[in-house]
Amino acid sequence: MRPKLLILDGSAMISTAYYAVLPNEVKFAKTEEEKGKYFHKILHAPDGTYTNAIYGMVRQMNGLIDGWRPDYLAVAFDKTRNTFRRGMFAQYKAQREATPLPLKQQFVTMQNLLQDVGIPVLLSDTYEADDLAGTLANIHKNDMTVRIVTKDKDYLQLVDDACDVRVWFLPTPKDLEEKGPMFDLYRGKDFTTEICPWLKNYLEYTEAAVIADKGVTPAQIPDLKGIEGDDSDHYPGVRNVSSAATPLLKEYGSVEGIYAAIDACEGDAKEEKALSAFWKDSLGIKRSPLNALKAGRADAALCKDLATIRLYCFSEDLLTGKEYRTCKIAEFNKKLLRLGIQSAFLPEF
C-alpha cells in the first residue's frame, strides 16, 4: 500500500475557522472601527494571543488526521497577495479587504506552531498556496496517495484518478445539503459516511465529480476560468460568453481549440455565420458568442494563465523525514494548552 499524503490549504482552513468562531458583535459590526471595539471578545490565550481560528483549524485537522491516518502532512499558506499573478494583472484580488488583525496574527501563530513540531509549512513570496500544494502533489502523486483539503475550486485541476489525487472541498452548509448526495455517487459503491465519518462535512472531488459539478474535466478548469473569469480573484474572463463556455470546451477541448475553430474561418463572414449556426444547432448555444470571443481573445489567454496552478515551484523533497507520525505532536498539544486551548488537539498514532 502506498503511503498517504495529506495537503492542507492552511489559508482556506484558518480563514474559514476564524469566521465560523467569531463573536456576533464582530461578525455583524458595520465598520472596521466598530469591529475593533469587540476584538477582546474573540477567543484568546491568557497572554492575549488570539486563538479562535487556531482552535477551529485544529479541530478540523483532528478529524482528518484521526480518520484518514496520513503518513505525511504538509500545510500551504498564502504569504502575500503580491505574487507573480498580480505582476501579470494588477487588479488580481484587488477587491479583497485587508485581513483582520486577529486573523493575520493567527496565520503567523499557526505557522509557527506547525513548524516548531516538524510539520512542513509551505510559504512563498512569489507563489500562492495552490501553486505550492500543487507542486508538492505533483512531486509525489506517482508514489503516494494524495488528498488536498481546500475551499478554492482552482484546486480541482489537480484531481487525477490515475494517480489517486483527490480534493476534499470545504463547502458551505447549503453546498453540502444540495450537492452532497450527488458526490456520494462518485466515492464508490461501498462508500458511506459511517465508514468514512471524516468526509461527512466535505465534498470529495474525483474526476467524475468535477465533470458532474463543473461540466468539464479537471484539466479544463483553467480553460473554463479563462472564459468565465473568477469574481473571487477579480479577473474578468471573456464578457458575455460564460454560459457558452462549457459546451464550447466540450467540443474543442481548450481555449486554444476554440480559437483555432474561429481562425479556420479566416475572417470570412459566411464561414463565421456557418460556425455560429453549428454552435446553435449542435451545441445548443442560442446566442452566438463569436464576436465576444474575438474581442476578448487576449483576456481569455490571460485569465487561463492566471487560473493555471504552477506545478514546479520547488524541486526539493520537503517530506524527507517529515512523516506525520514522527512529528512532535505531544509538544504541539502542550503549546495549545499554553494558549488556553483545552478541547482541540492533534491525535498521535
Search tags:
single chain; 349 residues; alpha/beta; 6-stranded mixed sheet; globular
Strand order of the biggest β-sheet: 3-2-1-4-5-6
Please work out how many helical segments DSSP would assign: 16
* Strand/helix succession: EHHHHEHHEHEEHEHHHHHHHH
Task: Report the uncertain regions.
Answer: none
> How much of the residues is beta strand, in percent?
5-15%
Find the structural class using helix and strand composition.
Answer: alpha/beta
Instruction: Bin the helical content.
Output: 40-55%
Q: Based on Cα principal axes, name the global outline.
A: globular
Largest sheet, strands/sense/barrel: 6 strands, mixed
Compute the number of strand runs: 6
| Cα-atom radius of gyration | 22 Å
N/C terminus separation: 18 Å
Mean pLDDT: 93
Task: Describe this entry's structure for a reader.
The protein has 349 residues and is an alpha/beta fold. The chain contains 16 helices and 6 strands. The mean pLDDT is 93.
Short description:
The chain is an alpha/beta fold and 349 residues long. The chain has helices spanning 10-20, 24-27, 32-37, 52-68, 84-88, 101-116, 129-140, 173-184, 207-214, 221-228, 242-252, 255-263, 269-283, 290-295, 297-307, 329-338; strands at residues 4-9, 72-76, 121-122, 145-150, 165-169, 203-205. It has a 6-stranded mixed β-sheet with strand order 3-2-1-4-5-6.
